[in-house]
Specification:
Strand order of the largest sheet: 3-2-1-4-5-11-10
Helix content: 25-40%
Order of helices and strands: HHEHEHEEHEHEEEEHEE
Oligomer: single chain
Structural class: alpha/beta
Radius of gyration: 18 Å
Strand content: 25-35%
Number of strands: 11
Length: 254
């Protein structure tokens, strides 16, 4: 992840309004967490969407992110929930946590922020150096489906939500670069009042790297991970061509 690719995260409060309701991964993370002693490390923790529920469940957990604004909001949320969590601002490709863990996870498709082979290598090497032998690394990333990789300059509708009395309509423009396996995305947010009058339009850009299943298998094995499971959802459904996500449970084997 590079700071030049963080435009989508400049408003932590807006981020929570759009993402806090997503909790499909939390139950699975909590289930795995029971098998480990900790400390558990949440990489790309953002505003603490997954970090805080783990701490509230009694786990010792550390949150790591590159974005100072997201971390500040995470600390405020944790304090409001009455839990103490050490949050640290670090580049995940250059981790220096001063301790090792038996369980590290990175959810919310954060793996896609590492846009180059070198970036992916540095990330996995950094995680390796902070896992004990036999420790687990859990992460998810979007499946490179035909739909995701289709190139179009057309604006596509996303979702709508209420922000007070206003309605926010979110849509996307995406283009895929097949040579670099990077999807260039523009998110468009339009705010309307209760009468349907347009109040504001904002745009933000983000680039995401896609990795194919066989490519991921070779990448993880190269970095000393044994894949224990790869699923298309948090119910451990085996990966199929109909998937929208790839969820990996990996064991540090060396």
């Amino acid at each position: 992840m590079v700071k030049e690719n963080l435009e989508e995260y400049q408003d932590p409060i807006q981020y929570d309004k759009e993402n806090d309701s997503y909790n499909q991964d939390i139950a699975y993370i909590l289930k795995l967490a029971k098998k480990f002693n900790g400390p558990i490390v949440d990489l790309g923790c953002g505003t603490g969407r997954a970090t805080i529920p783990l701490a509230k469940a009694g786990h010792k957990v550390l949150g790591v992110d590159l974005h100072s604004g997201m971390l500040k909001h995470a600390k405020e949320k944790a304090a409001a929930e009455g839990v103490s969590i050490p949050f640290t601002e670090q580049d995940c490709t250059k981790l220096d946590l001063g301790q090792k863990s038996d369980f590290i996870f990175m959810v919310g498709n954060s793996f896609q922020h590492f846009l180059t082979n070198e970036g992916q290598d540095r990330l996995l090497a950094s995680i390796q150096s902070h896992l004990i032998t036999g420790g687990r690394f859990l992460f998810d990333t979007r499946f490179p489906s035909t739909y995701e990789l289709s190139c179009s300059e057309d604006e596509e509708p996303g979702f709508t939500y209420k922000d007070g009395r206003h309605s926010v309509h979110v849509s996307y423009i995406s283009q895929y670069d097949p040579l670099n396996q990077i999807q260039h995305n523009i998110t468009i947010r339009r705010s309307f009042d209760e009468n349907g009058k347009l109040l504001e339009e904002k745009r933000s850009a983000i680039n995401l790297r896609f990795v194919f299943p066989l490519e991921m298998e070779r990448l993880l094995e190269r970095h000393g991970f044994t894949i224990e499971g790869v699923y298309q959802d948090w119910k451990e459904t085996p990966l199929t061509t109909e998937a929208s996500s790839m969820i990996y449970v990996c064991k540090k084997s060396v």
